[in-house]
Amino acid sequence: MDRNRAGSRMEIKNRRATFDYELLETFTAGMVLTGTEIKSIRLGKASLVDTYCVVERSEIWVKNMYIAEYFYGTYNNHPVRRDRKLLLNRKEIRKIETAARNSGFTIVPLRLFINDRGLVKMVIAVARGKKEYDRREALRERDDRREMARAFKK
Question: Which residues, other chains included, contact 74 with Cβ-Cβ below 8 Å and sequence gap of 6+?
Answer without folding.
Answer: none
